[in-house]
Design a protein that fits this description.
The chain is mostly helical. Helices cover 71% and strands 1% of the residues. The chain has helices spanning 2-10, 13-31, 37-44, 53-78, 89-98, 102-135, 140-152, 154-157, 162-176, 202-220, 240-243, 247-262, 268-282, 294-318, 324-335, 344-347, 349-372, 374-378, 385-404, 407-425, 431-453, 465-493, and strands spanning 179-180, 187-188. Strands 1-2 form a two-stranded antiparallel sheet. A hairpin with a 6-residue loop joins strand 1 (179-180) and strand 2. Helix 1 (2-10) crosses helix 17, helix 5 runs antiparallel to helix 6 and helix 7 runs antiparallel to helix 21. It comes from Treponema parvum. The chain crosses the membrane at residues 12-35, 55-78, 105-128, 140-158, 165-183, 189-212, 313-333, 353-374, 386-404, 410-440, 461-483. InterPro entries: DUF112_TM. Keywords: Membrane, Transmembrane, Transmembrane helix.
Length: 494
């Protein structure tokens, strides 16, 4: 049936044009700091009303793939993640660009994005139902265990000082508590201010910490104007020698992205950080991470694109959105009279396989478009800072305001921009802050739900083997980090 879906797709010129348009539209929204894939899909959702269900949904999934992949461009060239899913790409992508290897970093990132997307689509086609059957068994305690384990990976992102890394993560969790509490909606740290009742949105926090702080750093420290960095670029930017030792990293990161994507509510913004941490912990040279190596880019870009197929699995098989983008896609399905769930494969199997075919084609189009534009992307480094920086600030402001149409989000953007700059100056790492901010709500929500279901009995968690497995992994991760820290101090003292 998948083969016949491909034939039907190529026989429909309009569907092909919409897929190409969707990919390019998504790449633009993903690459520009402050604009998001969710915003792009939301903008184009009404357009699908006049299209057939296959053509409309194909365009939306093409925007999803293009948007997730496009985030690597600004992450590598400007140290500004275009999307939350590209946070970890900054860690090694920007150092490579500063060393004159922007083309290589982009080329490897595009290849990793393509591999991760194809891997997840293949998994989606083959193992959708078994994976969905497993995730439906996840309750509050299981999600609590997953988030607890993810939080222990802060040790891998803490940099040279574990104390500063933990403080950064705690600050992130602290800012996440501002607003209405989950479950009971109690006001916390709002200071009787209406704007603070909604808390701080992820986009202004992320863009402020990375994009605005980078602009401030460039303006204040003129010698750090990296927009004039020399670069080298040949062919696709990379060769076989650059990736021949990365097969294990590619597969491992794809599996991590797929697994995280399947879990509703977590998504690519977490999977890239977790995959980066796992790659660093599994590496023979973890000290090189953050200095500009391909391992980090591959881990981040493979996992965030693999989460695309992962997030689509619960959407198609259970009708449960895996992240913000698939929540909009759910609306797209319903707009065309389709109800995602187990019966979708029986009543509209042709539409499901048409989406599979469109996603595979969109992945290929994404790779072709981005490799074709490689030289144009790299030339961004040659734009003078007095032109580039104001444009970036304006785009960040527009993106933050357009999120909820609140001027407060623009002030939040500036606040976290200044905070990010100060944190860099005192050598406090930013990644733990972001991880803590993202996971804090899920951590608290699932802990409180679990305790409610158990009537306050904390021992109830021991009747959930999946939760205990993740908690055991969290304990192992902490012990491992402590042992490694002791060894490093002993080595330094010697």
């Amino acid at each position: 049936m998948l083969f016949s879906s491909f034939i039907n797709l190529f026989a429909n010129p309009l569907a092909l044009v919409l897929i190409v348009f969707g990919v390019m539209f998504g790449i633009v929204f993903g690459a520009l700091p402050g604009l998001t894939t969710v915003a792009g899909i939301s903008m184009m959702l009404p357009v699908t009303y006049v299209l057939t269900k296959e053509a409309g949904l194909s365009m939306l999934t093409a925007i999803y793939i293009g948007g997730t992949s496009g985030g690597l461009v600004s992450a590598i060239l400007l140290n500004m993640p275009g999307t939350p899913a590209s946070i970890a790409t900054c860690f090694d992508g920007r150092p490579m660009a500063l060393k004159g290897e922007a083309g290589k970093a982009l080329g490897i990132g595009i290849f990793a994005s393509f591999f991760g997307t194809i891997f997840s689509i293949a998994a989606m086609v083959v193992i959708s139902k078994p994976l969905a059957a497993l995730t439906i068994k996840f309750g509050p305690w299981e999600y609590f265990g997953v988030t607890l384990f993810a939080l222990t990976l802060i040790a891998s992102l803490a940099g040279k000082s574990m104390i500063k890394g933990l403080l950064s993560a705690l600050f992130g969790m602290m800012f996440a508590t501002v607003g209405l509490a989950p479950i009971d909606s109690a006001k916390r740290f709002t200071f009787d201010t209406l704007e603070l009742t909604s808390g701080f949105a992820l986009l202004p926090v992320l863009v402020g910490l990375y994009a605005v702080s980078e602009v401030l750093e460039t303006v204040i420290e003129e010698h750090k104007d990296a927009t004039m960095t020399e670069y080298r670029l040949k062919g696709l930017g990379f060769g076989w020698n650059d990736i021949k030792d990365q097969i294990g990293n590619l597969v491992r990161s794809a599996v991590v992205g797929l697994g995280i994507g399947v879990l509703p509510g977590i998504g690519g913004s977490t999977s890239n950080l977790i995959a980066y941490s796992v790659a660093k912990n599994s590496s023979k040279h973890p000290e090189k991470f953050g200095t500009g190596i391909v391992d980090g880019i591959i881990a981040s870009e493979t996992s965030n694109n693999a989460s695309i197929g992962g997030a689509m699995i619960p959407l198609l098989t259970l009708g449960i959105p895996g992240d913000g983008v698939t929540a909009i896609l759910l609306g797209g399905f319903m707009l065309h009279g389709l109800t995602p769930g187990p019966l979708l494969f029986q009543t509209n199997a042709d539409t499901v396989y048409a989406i599979y075919a469109a996603m595979i084609l969109s992945s290929a189009v994404m790779a072709i478009v981005m490799f074709t534009g490689l030289r144009g992307f790299v030339k961004i480094l040659k734009i003078p800072s007095y032109i580039l920086l104001p444009v970036i600030i304006v785009l960040c402001g527009i993106g933050s305001y357009a999120l909820n149409y609140r001027v407060f989000d623009i002030f939040s953007l500036l606040l976290f921009g200044i905070m990010g700059y100060v944190m860099k100056k005192v050598s406090v790492p930013l990644p733990p802050f972001i991880l803590g901010f993202i996971l804090a709500k899920d951590f608290e929500t699932n802990l409180r739900r679990g305790l409610q279901y158990a009537n306050g009995n904390t021992m109830e968690i021991f009747s959930h083997p999946i939760a205990i497995l993740f908690i055991a992994l969290a304990v192992f991760s902490i012990v491992r980090a402590v042992i490694k820290g002791v060894k490093n101090r002993s080595g330094t003292a010697a």
